[in-house]
């Protein structure tokens, strides 16, 4: 198990090596690289809150209702 450095929740990290070639999403790579559990925690940890984005219950990032795997640089 891993502790997310932003929300401090314990979660099971995704085995990205297993998922490569199976359509792994960008947030999985962000999680693997940073140890952050979700897009939401990634944004808050890296660039502060991003009011232009919304997040679903799994913390996946959306902009205007469209899935957004990568955040734009902060303004
Ligand atoms: Zn988190």
Overview of the structural elements:
The chain has 75 residues and is of the alpha+beta class. The protein has one domain (2-67). 29% of the residues lie in helices and 15% in strands. It is built from 3 helices and 5 strands; from the N terminus they run E-E-H-H-H-E-E-E. It has a 3-stranded antiparallel sheet with strand order 3-4-5, with no helix packed on it. The chain has a two-stranded antiparallel ribbon with strand order 1-2. A hairpin with a 2-residue loop joins strand 4 (61-63) and strand 5 (66-67). The model has no long low-confidence stretch (mean pLDDT 84). The structure holds zinc ion. Zinc ion binds at residues 4, 6-7, 9, 36-38, 41.
Quick summary:
With 75 residues, the chain is of the alpha+beta class. The chain has helices at residues 16-19, 26-34, 39-47; strands spanning 2-3, 10-11, 54-55, 61-63, 66-67. Strands 3-4-5 form a three-stranded antiparallel β-sheet, with no helix packed on it.
């Amino acid at each position: 198990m891993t502790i997310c450095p932003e929300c401090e929740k314990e979660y099971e990290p995704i085995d990205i090596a297993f998922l490569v070639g199976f359509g792994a999403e960008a947030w999985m790579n962000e999680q693997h690289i940073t140890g952050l559990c979700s897009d939401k925690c990634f944004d808050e940890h890296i660039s502060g809150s991003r009011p232009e984005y919304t997040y679903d219950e799994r913390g996946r990032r959306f902009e205007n209702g469209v899935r957004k795997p990568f955040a734009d640089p902060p303004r």
